[in-house]
Design a protein that fits this description.
globular, 5-stranded mixed beta sheet, Rossmann fold, alpha/beta, 36% strand
């Protein structure tokens, strides 16, 4: 049990005919294989939707970063589905995570915000525009 775990815990919930809530808990240093698992799950959830809107709750308090290939996978995900991302709430506790959250907004069509606590992040996601 001394091996450190990495990856995503994932929950995907349809919240309407064209809406999906993707809840992620990221831990450790993300690797390419983590995205090989995540991306098909997300794409399957939005399959058949004409204009999907994806809201994301990402708990990154245990995230240590990305290996280079995983960072590339993250960028590709943002480029491919960026216009479909509606709101991304990122919960973290390190200054570099806040910077990473701001950089991520460059690749999506929606809005992203960084939070230090989960409750206000969930409240913001539930606000309707």
């Amino acid at each position: 049990m001394g091996e450190f775990h990495h990856g995503f815990s994932v929950s995907i919930e349809r919240t309407g005919s064209e809406r999906v809530l993707l809840a992620l808990h990221a831990r450790g240093k993300l690797e390419h294989q983590d995205y090989e698992t995540l991306v098909p799950m997300l794409e399957s959830a939005i399959a058949g939707m004409e204009h999907p809107k994806i809201d994301v709750m990402m708990d990154m308090r245990e995230l240590q970063g990305w290996e280079i290939r995983a960072a590339w996978d993250d960028l590709k995900l943002g480029v491919k589905h960026g216009r479909q991302f509606n709101k991304i709430a990122m919960v973290g506790n390190k200054s570099w995570q806040e910077v990473a959250a701001k950089i991520g907004t460059w690749f999506i069509g929606g809005e992203a915000r960084f939070f230090e606590d989960k409750a206000p992040a969930l409240a913001w996601l539930q606000e309707t525009a």
